[in-house]
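Risk register update: the risk that structure generation would not scale has been downgraded. Supporting records follow, first protein first.
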Amino acid sequence: MAKALDLARSVKGATGDNPAVGAVVYKKGAILGMGRTHMPGQDHAEAEALWRAGKSARGASLAVTLEPCCIHGRTSPCTHAIIASGIKRVVAALKDPNPLIHGRGLLALARAGVRIECGLGESEAMVINEDFFKYITTGIPFVVVKAGLTLNGLIAADSRHSRWITSEEARQLVHELRARTNAVLVGLSTVLEDNPKLTVRHVEGRNPIRVVLSHGPDIPKTSYLAKTASDIRTIVVTPRALRTRCSNAIQYIDLGARTSRLPIRQVLRRLGVAGIKSVLVEGGSEIYTSFLEQRCIDMFQLFFAPRVLSSGIPFVHGQRTLSVRESLNLRDVTIRQLQNGFMVTARPER
């Protein structure tokens, strides 16, 4: 199962609408075939592992990080291939939370005489696909907030100059995050001040969808996002419909809100309807604050640099708080030392 989990991690962000899954066919401690999920319409992990194992799969065991599918989609059910191969035992890390499959794949295998075990490596498998699982059960994208900060919690100087607070290593990790995420989201102020690309560079990977939250105005026609919208899917979300639009290539989402304050939960629901399963929030301060105050964050990935600014733009600047009890408590906190700074990963307590 450890090898299957490694295979699943290796394709995170490269499987399109599919979850990242790894599978290993083995017998008496020897690996006979390995597989991992590919893009939609291509082989699932189990099918690839069985193909590589060939006839030697008969009488062997299959370790897989997610319950095999049992429905006809863009590919045939993996349960059919497993039964036809003569596999005698399947060890699945966890049941597929997809309501169309949940438990049915394992039941189909058991009815065909395949011995079933479930739960080995469950927590690791859950983390690998936590974004997919949230989306498939709620229709809401998984939200990661990413920020580069000084040690005293500032994201830019008073002039809004922020390049570069963090190190080159930290910026490369950010590009890896983008490559694993469906969409990158920023506020209009970030577009106006930084004219960002929001693309994947420095590492291999596809560009995410770019999403801009605006309190009303459109993004400038001269912005990089507008100029490249025909090549990279770009979405602008506004409270009300715009009278004029800067580009026909941009997808506009009108929330029909009565105020200029963007209801983040509604934004996420509309992005989910648009097929976006995960969102990387990259600022600025007002956007961070909105997501925090409206409790719409699933994970923080914060990059701290060994710098201190005497004043500047804070990470968040919400309403006045009167007690520490009003704070958002975090769990599963990990700290990774970088060459020049450190990265904190944490999840809000629910």
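Supporting record for the second protein:
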Amino acid sequence: MSIKRILVVCSLLLSATSFAQTKVYIAPNGKVFTEEVYQKGKVTSLANARTNYGAGYELYEKLELVSKTTDSIKYKFKWDFLTKDMLAEKLLLDKAVGSDLNLKNLNFLIAATRNKVDLAKPTFVNFWFTNCIPCIEELPALNELKEKYRDSINFVSVTFDDDKKVSYFLTKHKFDFIHIVDAKKLIDSLGVSGFPKSFLLDKNQKIQFIEGALPSVENKQSYEIQMRSLTEKLNKLL
């Protein structure tokens, strides 16, 4: 057999192998989708997002290769539905991952709580403001996390609101965090423009993860999925 013929045969075999490979997509909740279902889901989900939130939303896909064999490729996937402005914020915030975040010199609502931030522990930092409806909706989730990790993680909230607004808010809502107020300069420097936003810091106070709003407890399925994902990330920091 000539070298040319061998190359042709090898090429055909490789081509046949690639055509035989099936793609599998694994959702954050562990559900598995075929290529056909996955692609249809993208179209349907984007249509729903535009119906519910506005025509300016786009679907941004993040794929992580799990495994690859001769007959299958497995990916973990995550979808974000964002406007162009929201995407610009996300790209800016992504650059902050790995950088330091020093909270000690900021304006604490209660001065004595400054010393309760143990820099030897990981820190959960929530950015919010008092008139933010999604911020209020995620409070039960935040309080639940604080209760679960109260001895091993610092929980700190940061807002541009002043002490009077925050003090009044806390008479109406349970928010069991250490509170930092009047922090507009810090918030702007980080590029945070959409609220709420949570930064997860490791024991060296370096930003490791950035999270968006948590769902309300009424949305049980989404709530459980998001809380499970967040718990896994917090456990990695311990």
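The longest strand covers residues 58-68. On this basis the risk owner (M.S.) recommends closing the item.
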